[in-house]
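Notes from the 1:1 (GR / supervisor)

We went over the backlog. Supervisor wanted to see one worked example end to end before approving the batch request, so GR pasted a single chain during the call. The sequence is below; no edits were made to it. Supervisor asked that the structure be written out right there so they could see what the output format looks like.
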Amino acid sequence: MTSDEKKTELKKYRTLLLATLNYHLEHYTGSMVFDQWDPAAEHYLREQQRTEQDFQEQKLDVLQQCLRGYLMRLRSRVDVNFAQFIKKETGFDIDIFEDLRNEVAIIVSNGKIKRSEEFFKVQDLLRVYEGEVEAPALIAQLKALIDDFTAAANLNPAIPGLGHSLTKQVVVQVQPPPPNVGNATTLSIEETTEILTPEVFTEMNYRNGLLSEIRSPDGNRFVRVQTNGSGKNALTDVSISLRGGSGSIYCAEGANLPIKAYWGDNQTVVIETNQEYTNITKHHRVSSFDDVVKIEYRY
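Structure output shown during the call:
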């Protein structure tokens, strides 16, 4: 690649990546907001700054890798509106479902879905076609493959997903920071298609230090008290799970602290703690889109 060609590619990927991050800021924020802090928005704004720095340092491979990552995330979310946005904003055509179409074509040619991973791919492409194009014959074919697989899964315990819904989740997970690091709470945005039974999920949580878990009166939210680390690095953390994700709302230094967290009502979490504890995180309000939960403290 000549110097001029590299400059052209650098400008192209800078333009595409910045536009893609703007799209995420517009459409993929607000899923978990703690007081006035939206960790997803902060993450995307920081990525825009990093993009400008990588452009100035001519890190073409880094820009390309970052863009691929965000496009894969949009594909996983089955975002059928991105192509129109990116064409309008940049003039470039991007089909985030091209690989998915090719992968599903192989499944269709085999005449059956063999594994849960293939199920998700067929399900995703069905959502694409239902939202994008007029393809009644192909839509009917994909639906038939899904119906055959789910029917077999209900009868055959050897097939992943037996007796449990095959559901894809996009989770914004906010983790408490280590002690003595101020408010440097870390953010990870994860997408998973892992299938876990409620029993396995609960057992896994208890192995990982779960002390209590209480569902809201309407059954749509959870609040958990969990301990992790040891010695000077030990923490006792209260986290909440809402529609858009989960994250830490209160965290104090120390293992297995006698902290209680429960629901006052569907929109209020009550945390009983001690004023003498050293707090790492302490929020008073958390929201997930239009679902707002107030946090009350009692000592």
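Supervisor's comment: The longest strand covers residues 245-253.
Batch request approved.
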